[in-house]
Design brief:
By secondary structure, the protein is mainly beta. Helices cover about 0% and strands about 55% of the residues. The protein has no helices and eleven strands.
Length: about 120
């Protein structure tokens, strides 16, 4: 019943921008911390950014200043704006929904491919 559906990935040139979206259903969206993670071939899945139910944000140090996470609770959607993209940003980007209070839950989307190449 729970679904996290990512969209917005694709091919972009170095220095370009991209906005990813994640539409959630089957959860009370407003009580979840939402996040974006990424995984490149041969690498572990790593944090990109998170945003709490109170709109507190957290970013990976390597990406701070280039990415912005935001949420629209009315649309049950979390966004990731990525600017000044680099080839090393190439990865599958995954949406995450997490809550630790009252029946802890951790959900993942299917991922969307981001390729940064000239």
């Amino acid at each position: 019943q729970v679904q996290l559906v990512e969209s917005g990935g694709g091919l972009v040139q170095p220095g370009g921008s991209l906005r990813l979206s994640c539409a959630a259903s089957g959860i009370i969206f407003g009580i979840y911390t939402m996040g974006w993670y990424r995984q490149a071939p041969g690498n572990q899945r790593e944090l990109v950014a998170t945003i709490t139910s109170g709109d507190t944000t957290n970013y990976a140090d390597s990406l701070k200043g280039r990415v912005t996470i935001s949420r629209d609770n009315a649309k049950n959607t979390v966004y990731l704006q990525m600017n000044t993209l680099k080839p090393e940003d190439t990865a599958v980007y995954y949406c995450n929904a997490y809550k630790s209070n009252f029946r802890p839950r951790d959900y993942w989307g299917q991922g969307t491919q981001v390729t940064v190449s000239s």
